Amino acid sequence: MTDVRPLAGFTVGITAARRAEELGALFVRQGAAVRYGPAIRIVPLADDTELREATTRLLESPIDLVVATTGIGFRGWIEAAEGWGIGEKVLEQLSGAELLARGPKAAGAVRAAGLAESYSPASESSAELAQYLVESGVAGRRIAVQLHGEPLPYFTAQLRQAGAEVIEIPVYRWVAPTDPGPLDRLLDAVLEGTVDALPFTSAPAAASTVAVARRTGRLAALVEALSGRAVAACVGPVAAAPLAALGIPTVQPRRSRIGALARSVADALTEQSPTLYAAGHALQVRGTGALVDGDWREVAPAPMALLRALARQPGRVVSRRELSAELPGGGEAHAVETAIGRLRTALGGSGMVQTVVKRGYRLAVNPGDAPAMIG
After folding, report:
1. Fewer beta carbons below 10 Å: N end or C end of the chain?
2. CATH assignment of 275-369, given 3.20.20.60, 3.40.50.1110, 1.10.10.10, 3.30.559.10?
3. Is the model's pTM score more than 0.85?
4. Distance from C-alpha of 286 to C-alpha of 269, rounded to nearest angstrom
């Protein structure tokens, strides 16, 4: 038996702009193939009048609380202020306020600026941070919230409803990618069934992906794909919101970190590809092939589509008509027979795929041996 890495045979699509290569590397190290299709890009606001106006407003009177949501955003804000020649004034203003950080990277940026945070939620979530602030009492207090690429309407609305004055600090924002081609091709791959998981690290990336699918008439197909065979994963509930609005189920880690996100995707892919026992062999169906008794077998797209169809209901006879509908682009009975022959060859001619005369084909499994269905 050869040494096969945990995610060999699976393909993961990466839509992130920031830290995309870092996230992709986590999957590559486990043997997965990675396809990149950035859904967004980051635009710094160092010269943006919106950021400067917000900073000027901050300096008008003492501030009570400052919320740092990301390390890169907080650093960018301080660097922009220094570029305008008001860096010392901003730091002086912040030093007189209570600082809160959403996570360790934001806390690190706060400390690097010579300041110190008083609280950082263990979950690293905006929701827990908002709950802490509201329960602490914010009525009549002046709060600056450093945004992280997108508005935080739920977060800021909670504070305003609790009686706080909120100043939003937009340090950078997300916009559409300069070249939409890679995302367009990634969406095609998801719909074709050649991408097994699509993780999202931010709500803007998820929203942009949905927007492109809607604009190009592929939204219904994308919802179907992400609700079925392909795993949709999000770093947290905020990132998942654009998908949840469409009824797409998502996998989410307990901690909102990309390492935890990668582990959640790996677990989901493994769980939806259980081991079957056919003709005395252990069979695990994956994205581009199968493990047979622990050995990796690459399978071409057409026979792979038929293997997935057979594996959805192990042991059941699947008719030629049903199988022809599964072939990429469709096909006649002869195309099904050809693909079945290629599938048997790819699996090592082990007798796992049986012909049932005048009815179709089935995986040669005993009912009690099939632990679960493959989606």
Report:
1. N
2. 1.10.10.10
3. no
4. 8
